[in-house]
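In the design runs reported in the main text, the only information available to the sequence generator was the tokenized backbone. The following block is the verbatim input for one such run; it is reproduced so that readers can re-run the procedure and compare outputs position by position.
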């Protein structure tokens, strides 16, 4: 039944305009119900964000698909994800053949999701810490995805993006953001496209919102 629900979700996402077959194949493959709290398993394949505790959510499938498509993933890309959360977005990137590095600022969510990655046999590098300052040890990254809304683009993330790479990040206030797609032309030159009307939890950290 769950596989049938995933097929229906993929059909729905195609109708909403998602075209990248690699993204759709990953959504068909990754079992979203494993990434939601047990009381919400029956809602796993609805196109809605769901609470996962600690004031965080697992993003709406359309948002995951749209952001992943916007990254323009190539197999083998080294991708940094800011905001591990449930682990679903990281699992989608892993299913697309990416080498995934992910950072989570909430220690309880971090431990819970790392255990899930291990249980599912997903080789995803995860760390607990402030995602707004990135993961300098493993830069540069081909792609960077930020799954929380920032007041502005963290400069450290731009520095850790390779020339020719792309950063996808929601930027705005605490309630509503525009999704920015930033291509790094060289160290001081960027091309930016954006789409309005996205809503993410706030990006907390040194180069994000303070936790007040």
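Verbatim output:
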């Amino acid at each position: 039944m769950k596989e049938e629900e995933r097929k229906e979700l993929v059909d729905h996402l195609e109708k909403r305009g998602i075209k990248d077959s690699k993204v759709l194949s990953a959504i068909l493959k990754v079992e979203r119900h494993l990434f939601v709290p047990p009381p919400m398993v029956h809602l796993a394949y609805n196109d809605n964000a769901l609470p996962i505790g600690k004031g965080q959510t697992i993003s709406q499938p359309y948002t995951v698909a749209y952001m992943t498509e916007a990254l323009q993933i190539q197999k083998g890309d080294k991708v940094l994800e800011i905001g591990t959360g449930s682990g679903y977005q990281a699992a989608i990137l892993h299913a697309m053949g990416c080498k995934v590095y992910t950072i989570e600022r909430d220690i309880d969510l971090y431990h819970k999701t790392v255990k899930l990655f291990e249980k599912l046999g997903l080789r995803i590098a995860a760390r607990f810490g402030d995602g707004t300052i990135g993961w300098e040890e493993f830069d540069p990254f081909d792609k960077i995805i930020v799954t929380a809304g920032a007041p502005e683009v963290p400069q450290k993330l731009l520095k850790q993006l390779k020339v020719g790479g792309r950063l996808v990040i929601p930027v705005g206030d605490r309630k509503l953001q525009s999704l920015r797609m930033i291509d790094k032309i060289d160290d001081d030159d960027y091309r930016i496209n954006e789409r309005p009307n996205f809503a993410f939890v706030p990006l907390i950290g040194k180069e994000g919102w303070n936790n007040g």
